[in-house]
């Protein structure tokens, strides 16, 4: 529930990785190096965007061209966590993140829900000085799971207290759209992250190339 005990009439749930946080380039570089070390050269940012999906086991299998073993899956995730953490300090918010959040703040409350590790997320939110923008910031209690965001979105929206019909999720994946739809909310998807425009458009949700464009669309949906 937002401060003051009154539910917001309009609310935006932001995704973090690839949406507010401009880290897709880093994740793509890590994937390229990791799969090359497994004997799978030629993984590119465009290829990642065209293949990205949850569960991650299916995503990895598409990139490799065959199912990945449990040991390979663990290797990919462990290497990602180690390399991502070591390069994280060089990553910033999207160029228009503050402008987009300013736009939303004039008309709706905001929260942040991510599948990233909660401790890491909370630290980054503080480092970038944006905690005060959100009524709630939530990450995953463990390493990003090989599942969907739907159940966590349900709990997040219950905690926020905003009416589902007045809520829009802004994210960069098909999973963000599915989590919103399953919970009676709407979504706007952005091309700044891990998913190709073609896959995003196939959901039927509005697709934007910038966060300010996404914020403007979201506000039109909930006014």
Q: What does this 3D model show about the protein?
A:
The chain has 223 residues and is α/β, with parallel strands linked by helices. It has two domains: 11-22 and 93-222, Rossmann fold (3-Layer(aba) Sandwich), CATH 3.40.50.1000; 24-90. The protein has ten helices and six strands. The protein has a six-stranded parallel sheet with strand order 3-2-1-4-5-6, with helices on both faces. Helix 8 links the parallel strand 4 (167-171) and strand 5. Helix 1 packs across helix 4 and helix 5 (97-105) packs parallel to helix 10 (211-222).
CATH class group of the largest domain: Alpha Beta
Poorly predicted spans: 1-7
H/I helix tally = 10
Order of helices and strands: EHHHHHEHEHEHEHEH
Q: What share of residues are in beta strands?
A: 5-15%
CATH topology of the largest domain: Rossmann fold
Class computed from helices, strands and strand pairing: alpha/beta
CATH superfamily of the largest domain: HAD superfamily/HAD-like
Determine the mean pLDDT.
92
> Biggest sheet, open or closed, and with what strands and sense?
6 strands, parallel
Radius of gyration: 17 Å
User: What's the architecture of the largest domain, going by CATH?
Assistant: 3-Layer(aba) Sandwich
Cα(first) to Cα(last) distance is 21 Å
Strand order of the largest sheet: 3-2-1-4-5-6
Domain tally: 2
What is the strand tally? 6
Overall, the morphology is: globular
Q: Into which percent range does the helicity of residues fall? A: 40-55%
């Amino acid at each position: 529930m937002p401060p003051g005990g009154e539910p917001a009439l309009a609310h935006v749930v932001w995704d973090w990785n690839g949406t507010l946080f401009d880290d897709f380039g880093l994740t793509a570089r890590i994937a390229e190096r990791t799969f090359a070390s497994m004997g799978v050269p030629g993984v590119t940012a465009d290829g990642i965007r065209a293949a990205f999906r949850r569960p991650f086991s299916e995503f990895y299998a598409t990139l490799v061209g065959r199912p990945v073993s449990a040991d390979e899956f663990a290797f990919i995730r462990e290497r990602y966590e180690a390399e991502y953490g070591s390069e994280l300090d060089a990553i910033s918010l999207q160029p228009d993140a503050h402008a987009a959040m300013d736009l939303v703040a004039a008309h709706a409350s905001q929260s942040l829900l991510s599948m990233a590790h909660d401790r890491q997320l909370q630290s980054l939110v503080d480092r970038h000085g944006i905690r005060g923008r959100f009524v709630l910031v939530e990450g995953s209690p463990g390493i990003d799971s090989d599942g969907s965001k739907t159940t966590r979105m349900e709990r997040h929206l219950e905690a926020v207290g905003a009416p589902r019909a007045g809520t829009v999720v802004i994210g960069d994946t098909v999973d963000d759209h599915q989590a919103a739809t399953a919970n009676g909310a709407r979504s706007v998807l952005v091309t700044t992250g891990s998913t190709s425009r073609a896959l995003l458009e196939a959901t039927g949700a509005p697709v934007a190339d910038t966060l300010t464009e996404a914020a403007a669309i979201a506000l039109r949906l909930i006014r």
